[in-house]
């Protein structure tokens, strides 16, 4: 690493460090980027080929890094759903389609009559009942289960180590901001709605089995907290939570089923000293007052919402990100795309507490014009100074 690159990396890392500590940074940090699949397309490579030969991801990451202005690497390896482990385990939860994109079937591993078993011991129930139902490779003889799990575990660790090394190499070559290892977890209700009971399952249970669903959320909360705690306890180490189900609940349901265990999870993470990043999916405008109650300087990346109201409600307490609609990058001229970025800067940047980011990562080349993304983020880099 040259001295110039080292200085650039320190400056970029400092932008985020200042935000997390309530300081106004030198300029607005930029975090917009691509999913792994979109980045592979952007580099002119085959999605399936690279996912099955992930050593090629380093070239994909470099290609995007050379072209897209950002303060963190515009392609991050954690978006890659490695197909090896799912094939080894006979997984039903993540399925690759004909084009190479990971699909998430509506599937569940727990039947309603099994709630008592789950509530009594969620971890045991997941090991003995849910995982064998979701993964055919874990529904064999004990010996074969152990062998399949060992193979998949090694593959997962090998791929994770490779991805971490690739990310570190790209960060060093291009001077992107770095951070200590963080964590990942979910709000307990979201966890139940993923592969435990599914979206449709929890939507039925909230009416047909409300006591059991509520007890299950409470029972799984310690696991969600423990899962989110990373090896480093500092605000620079971020725990990421994607928030799924709240927009599909009415206020009464949210207050009873979603909020208490979600808040408890966030409080435990911040009490442990970690930072928290939320992807606030869909429209949370009616829940802004709840989000304001959460402790810590939380990064809240919004998919939809009124930037002015969000800034007024949360800007003095949390860090706002997202809100830039990727649809504009596909349909509008470069000038109109830049105008939208200027509008967001004017609303959200004053006083600090703002990261420029897209409302969601770009999934494919058909969903955005990357030249417009480059122009927008160049504009923010040049005009986002305080």
UniProtKB/TrEMBL annotation:
All residue ranges annotated as the Uroporphyrinogen decarboxylase (URO-D) domain in the record: 177-382
GO process annotations (BP): porphyrin-containing compound biosynthetic process
- Give the domain of life: Bacteria
InterPro entries associated with the record: UROD/MetE-like_sf, Uroporphyrinogen_deCOase
Q: Which GO terms describe its molecular function?
A: uroporphyrinogen decarboxylase activity
- What SUPFAM superfamilies does the annotation carry? UROD/MetE-like (SSF51726)
Q: What is this protein called?
A: Uroporphyrinogen decarboxylase
């Amino acid at each position: 690493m040259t001295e110039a690159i080292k200085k650039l990396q320190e400056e970029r890392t400092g932008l985020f460090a200042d935000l997390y500590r309530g300081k106004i940074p030198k300029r607005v940090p930029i975090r917009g980027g691509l999913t792994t699949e979109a980045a592979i397309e952007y580099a002119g490579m085959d999605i399936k080929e690279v996912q099955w030969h992930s050593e090629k991801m380093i070239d994909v990451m470099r290609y995007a890094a050379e072209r897209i202005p950002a303060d963190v690497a515009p392609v991050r390896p954690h978006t890659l759903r490695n197909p090896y482990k799912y094939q080894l385990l006979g997984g039903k939860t993540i399925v690759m389609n004909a084009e190479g994109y990971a699909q998430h079937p509506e599937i569940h591993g727990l039947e309603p009559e099994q709630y008592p078993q789950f509530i009594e011991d969620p971890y045991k129930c997941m090991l003995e009942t849910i995982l064998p139902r979701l993964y055919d490779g874990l529904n064999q003889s004990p010996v074969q289960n152990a062998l399949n799990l060992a193979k998949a575990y090694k593959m997962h660790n090998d791929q994770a180590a490779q991805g971490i090394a690739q990310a570190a190499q790209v960060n060093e070559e291009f001077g992107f901001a770095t951070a200590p290892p963080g964590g990942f977890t979910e709000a307990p209700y979201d966890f139940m709605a993923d592969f435990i009971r599914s979206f449709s399952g929890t939507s039925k249970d909230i009416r047909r089995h409300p006591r059991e669903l509520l007890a299950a959320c409470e029972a799984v909360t310690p696991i969600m907290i423990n899962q989110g705690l990373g090896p480093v306890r500092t605000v620079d180490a971020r725990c990421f939570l994607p928030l799924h189900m709240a927009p599909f609940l009415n206020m009464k349901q949210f207050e009873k089923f979603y909020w208490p265990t979600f808040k408890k999870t966030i409080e435990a993470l911040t009490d442990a000293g970690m930072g928290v990043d939320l992807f606030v999916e869909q429209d949370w405008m009616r829940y802004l007052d709840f989000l304001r109650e959460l402790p810590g300087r939380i990064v809240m990346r919004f998919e939809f919402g009124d930037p002015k109201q969000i800034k007024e409600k949360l800007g003095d307490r949390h860090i706002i990100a997202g809100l830039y609609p990727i649809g504009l990058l596909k349909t509008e001229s470069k000038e109109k795309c830049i105008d939208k970025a200027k509008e967001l800067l004017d609303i959200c940047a004053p006083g600090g507490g703002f990261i420029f980011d897209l409302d969601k990562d770009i999934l494919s080349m058909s969903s955005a014009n990357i030249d417009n993304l480059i122009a927008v983020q160049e504009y923010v880099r040049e005009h986002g100074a305080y």
